Amino acid sequence: MRILLVGAGGVGSAFCAIAARRDFFETIVVTDYSLERAEAAAAQDERYAAARVDASSADAVAALCREHRITHVMNAVDPVFDMPVFEGAFAAGADYLDMAMSLSKPHPERPHEVPGVKLGDEQFAVAEQWEAAGRLALVGIGVEPGLSDVFARYAADHLFSEIDELGTRDGANLVVRDDDGNEVFAPSFSMWTTIEECLNPPVVWEDGAWHTTAPFSEPEVFDFPEGIGPVECVNVEHEEVLLMPRWIDCRRATFKYGLGEEMITILKVLHQLGLDSTEKVSVKGVQVSPRDVVAAVLPDPATIGPRMTGKTCAGLWVTGTGKDAEGRPTGPRSTYLYHVVDNEQTMREYGHQCVVWQTAINPVVALELLATGAWQGSGVLGPEAFDAVPFLDLLTSYGSPWGVRELAP
Amino acid sequence: MRILLVGAGGVGSAFCAIAARRDFFETIVVTDYSLERAEAAAAQDERYAAARVDASSADAVAALCREHRITHVMNAVDPVFDMPVFEGAFAAGADYLDMAMSLSKPHPERPHEVPGVKLGDEQFAVAEQWEAAGRLALVGIGVEPGLSDVFARYAADHLFSEIDELGTRDGANLVVRDDDGNEVFAPSFSMWTTIEECLNPPVVWEDGAWHTTAPFSEPEVFDFPEGIGPVECVNVEHEEVLLMPRWIDCRRATFKYGLGEEMITILKVLHQLGLDSTEKVSVKGVQVSPRDVVAAVLPDPATIGPRMTGKTCAGLWVTGTGKDAEGRPTGPRSTYLYHVVDNEQTMREYGHQCVVWQTAINPVVALELLATGAWQGSGVLGPEAFDAVPFLDLLTSYGSPWGVRELAP
Fold first, then answer.
1. Domain range for residue B85?
2. Do B273 and A287 touch (CB under 8 A)?
3. What percentage of residues in chain A have a pLDDT greater than 90?
4. Which of A157, A206, A303, B145 is the most buried (most CB within 10 A)?
């Protein structure tokens, strides 16, 4: 297996650190728009090489694939570049993996009722071509989407005879402090992307169809495990809702993000003032996008790891009818399958903060399953199209176990 | 009386419109950094002339005074230019009026406990020179400060034998709508200045000394008259607190601004994210001040008048011991002296929105009292240094009456 990693930012660098401990591949060619950043990430393993890439060009991606005889393209850049990387991999005959699907566009007239272009629509539109060519695009194989989708498959195969709701729930108790020990506001993930996903109309799968709602809809307090505790969660547009119902029978699929009251207030204010806008405005003679200004005044998420404490939890809350070991329906069941990562542990062991580390470990596991043949397939497939057990076992053997919490049904 | 108006923005333009109906002066030379703006404001009366001014230069202000044989300089520019305009007037032997005093600087170590440089300190520092020269600087003669200070003098002279608190309380129920009739967030006053005054440490006079607090301290809901109703008010740094105790005996002086919960949340978020900062940051190759970006994405307050409805109220809540007509102490008393302006009325009658109109009418009244000799003085004086009765009578005769509401003591 010869991997082209596109993007050496936070997640890409953590991917390199995790993969460096595994022997299932021959090489990883680490690429980025900044050659310096690619070289920094590639420096930690002699099997790695570095190159510059223009991720907006499918031709540039394809040329790199051919030059380095790439078998798998691992896409770790901003989702705005999803399609050129996806198309470049296909053109060069490589398999493809990403952690976020092609972007959505809201419905022009009824954005808070019906979807326009949905997340991944552009990729699924060419699924037959990928299948006919015998090539695999494994889309959405980070932590969310990714591990959450693996949990969905596991729940359908082993825990539930009938599923009412597949509810991804993400929450954390991360705190960042300044040099004086005071808490500061410092998102652990790109603020630009957080604004994008939280202010887009959230999508919900219900009774056989997708619909959208207004941002921050259906707030609920979810009690996260391992000491994180209750966090206010709201509907957010996310890939799981588009992926899970394609392979798993369920009445409802939702994604709720534990933004917490503070972040919800901040996002609402930014939107109210128009500071979420990406269109440039004129400010005393210069042109800037307000959203870029917001991102610029906040600390770089890649730099906050050493000043951060706490845990992050990704998981799937499944409700429906349980089943026993023989597959016979039991009674009503409500189960939360989850994966918790402690920032101090990932900083100590890998030098990467927990949110990017938790995203990056899952595609490494998936690539290893593809390398060993434990996972096989062609077409454009989500993680739930594959057997969950070998994935969860391998994740555990990486030293990062998952958990199950039974809730009152 | 020959007036030099420095600044033809919202308040300056409204000043021109109000003064145009009065005959106590010979000329007003309307000046601005933009000659075009000065000319537009000067066009409405044949006694007016227009000129360009650099308000940051005391020499430029003095030269204009001499050229036009100015007797009174009316300062209506951003308070950042207070000192050069004040000094330019003195150099040219003119009297001076402003609506906001020289700026404060927080205490470097204990900003939320003790004042650093206070509002007006730079002006009061040279009070003896003004007095020796027989010249008058009447500082803080807008609505707040201004009319609120006149109310303080009236309360001390006519309503109270002993004053516990002089509490300026400002509130409004103004709403701005877009073309579709939906409410939009559009501050009726400069957002840059709102951030400045609301995020500076508020100052309070108590038991013979000034102290400061953290921003947004001591929230209270005050019930404003004439249909405005209850609004959440918080401590804000304002001139009244520095002016009133210099002339009027009181145990406590406060200023609380009815920002409302929405504006308080917005200001807190802007501060939390660092978007209130005036220091330039680098954003994709250009340098901008985040606060300038916030101001740039919001509607220009000068343009929202036609889309705004509602009333604004400026007033002074006085508590203490009342007195009867003979000056004998009665019992505990709690009185709100106020001035309410309806936006639809000022738009219809003057073409200016109510907040700038209410600020601008008070210096016109004051200048008329100085022209007739009803008010006389020299030195650096606040409005409370003069008899309140002729001011309130003349304000009423302008068609803009004031009110009194007795509250439960």
1. 2-98
2. no
3. 90
4. B145
Asked if A286 is an interface residue toward chain B (Cβ–Cβ < 8 A), one would say yes
Do A156 and A75 share a domain, yes or no? no
Q: Do B286 and A287 touch (CB under 8 A)?
A: yes
CATH number at residue B267: 3.30.360.10
Across the interface, which of A273, A277, A296 has its CB nearest the CB of B283? A296
pLDDT tens per residue, range B202-248 = 999 999 999 999 999 999 999 999 999 999 999 999 999 999 999 99
How many other CB atoms are found less than 10 A from the CB of residue B329?
13
The answer to whether residue B93 sits within a structural domain is yes
Alpha helix positions (H), A290-353: 290-297, 343-350
**A62, A163: one domain:** no
* Structure confidence at residue A303 (pLDDT): 82
Put simply, the answer to whether A293 touches B287 (Cβ < 8 Å) is no
Number of domains in chain B: 2
Q: Is the pLDDT of residue B302 over 80?
A: no
Q: Are residues A156 and A282 in the same domain?
A: yes
Beta-bridge partner residues of A29 = A4, A49
Indicate whether A187 pLDDT > 90: no
Q: What is the ipTM of this complex?
A: 0.75
Kindly report, residue by residue over A208-236, the tens digit of the pLDDT. Answer: 999 999 999 999 999 999 999 999 999 99
Distances (CA, A) of A373 to A92, A142, A368, A386, B142: 21, 20, 8, 12, 79
Cβ contact, residue pair A284, B286, below 8 Å: no
**Per-residue model confidence (pLDDT) at position B100:** 94
Residues A29, A4: Cα–Cα separation, whole Å: 5
Other C-beta atoms within 10 Å of B376: how many?
Answer: 10
Q: What is the pLDDT of residue A197?
A: 85
Burial of B188 (0-12, 13-18, 19+ CB in 10 A): buried
Higher pLDDT: A402 or B79? It is A402
Contact assignment for B294 to A273 by CB distance below 8 Å: yes
Alpha helices in B78-190 (DSSP H): 82-91, 121-124, 127-132, 147-154
Determine phi and psi for B118, rounding to 5 degrees.
-90, 160
Q: Could you tell me if residue B113 is inside a domain?
A: no
pLDDT of residue B236: 95
Q: Among A274, A283, A298, whose Cβ lies nearest the Cβ of B288?
A: A283
Smallest Cβ–Cβ distance between A283 and the set B274, B282, B293 belongs to: B293
What percent of chain B stands above pLDDT 90?
A: 90
pLDDT at residue B42 is higher than 80:
yes
Residue A387: CB atoms within 10 A of its CB come to 14
User: Do A152 and A93 share a structural domain?
Assistant: no
- Give the pLDDT of residue A180: 87
CB-based contact, B109 to chain A, within 8 Å: no
Mean pLDDT score, A134-158: 98
Task: Supply the CATH number for residue B70's domain.
Answer: 3.40.50.720
Whether the predicted pLDDT of A302 surpasses 80: no
Q: Is B283 on the interface with A (CB under 8 A)?
A: yes
Question: How close does chain B come to A318, measured CA to CA in Å?
Answer: 35
Contacting residues of B for A259, CB less than 8 Å apart: none
Task: Say yes or no: B45 and B166 in one domain.
Answer: no
List the one residue out of A344, A316, A321 whose CA is nearest residue A332. A321
